[in-house]
Design brief:
heterodimer, A: 175 residues, mainly alpha, Ferritin, elongated, B: 119 residues, alpha+beta, two-stranded antiparallel sheet, globular, binds fe (ii) ion, iron (chain A), cytoplasm (chain A)
Chain lengths: 175, 119
């Protein structure tokens, strides 16, 4: 008997489902960052607004990268519905706390997919995921560094103004 | 007509239960579901979609809902077939599809061992 399912598609249904869930999570991240950008802009944190707008764009790129992979492998990529995006934040600091929390959740999610790939011996998808695993290093680093500014600079006086100015300058390099 | 189709296209019985059967045609690269008085053709994608749709039906809720008959329409966009199934039939179709996909998995492993990984 021909293996019709395998002829049609490189990835298993389980992996396809996980990747589609990840597509949705990246779309959610993108919308959340945009929401953070809006909040920052309205509260006078211009540099942070730019920073989050850029992050939002990056998440969109992540989403499309996953989307293309699923399709290229012969799977069914699903355009996700995104709802329940937080639009109000208690303060400047909470925005950054939420951003780090969101990145941690994404890292965990990728680890979960990677673990499934190992179980199935899907080394092709594993190799594809490596890019994202590496990307999460940078994403978490930047989010953590940003939050640390609140400790280093402090929020009193012109502190928030100072923090806002520094957010855009955070960069990550491996060396 | 069903019998004729099975003979002409040399259909392989992938999985059967008391309510129906699913066949594969290596000649036409497609599947046939013999279920609910229907003999319907599916391709890979539509068979996967049907499985998802059937698995998403909450049979328990269907039985507990007293305002509605215990029947459910089973179809999806782009599907040429519609099934009107009772709760019991849904359970049977679910089993039929799950059994079929388990056989696919098994076939995949057998293909690996017999064809793909030999040198
Ligand atoms: Fe991302
Ligand atoms: Fe991210």
């Amino acid at each position: 008997m021909k293996d019709l399912m395998r002829i049609k598609c490189l990835i298993s249904q389980d992996i396809e489902t996980l990747l589609n869930q990840q597509i949705k999570k990246e779309a959610h991240s993108s919308s959340l960052y945009l929401s953070m950008s809006s909040w920052c802009d309205q509260n006078g944190y211009d540099f942070s607004a730019d920073y989050f707008a850029k992050q939002s764009e990056e998440e969109r790129v992540h989403q499309l990268k996953l989307f293309k992979y699923v399709l290229d492998m012969g799977g069914n990529a699903i355009s996700p519905e995104v709802s329940g995006i937080k639009t109000d934040f208690a303060g400047f600091r909470e925005v950054f706390e939420d951003a780090l929390e969101a990145e941690i959740a994404i890292t965990q999610s990728f680890k979960n997919i990677a673990s499934k790939c190992h179980k199935e011996q899907d080394f092709v998808t594993m190799e594809f995921l490596n890019w994202f695993l590496k990307e999460q290093r940078e994403e978490e680093y930047k989010a953590r560094r940003a939050l640390e500014l609140f400790e280093v600079i402090g929020e009193e006086g012109t502190g928030r103004w100072e923090i806002d100015k520094h957010v855009n300058k955070i960069t990550y390099s491996e060396q | 007509m069903e019998k004729a189709c099975i003979d002409i296209n040399e259909l392989i019985n992938v999985f059967s239960n008391t309510q129906g059967s699913i066949y594969q045609s290596d000649k036409l690269n497609c599947f046939y579901i013999d279920f609910g008085g229907k003999f319907a053709r599916y391709n890979c994608l539509s068979l996967q979609k049907l499985k998802k749709v059937v698995e998403n039906i909450d049979v328990e809720a269907l039985l507990l809902n007293t305002t509605k008959a215990d029947f459910e329409l089973v179809t999806f966009n782009g599907c040429e077939h519609i099934y009107l199934l009772s709760a019991l039939e849904i359970v049977a179709l679910k089993e039929l599809l799950q059994g079929t996909f388990t056989m696919f998995k098994l076939n995949y492993m057998v293909n690996d061992c017999l064809n793909r990984l030999v040198y």
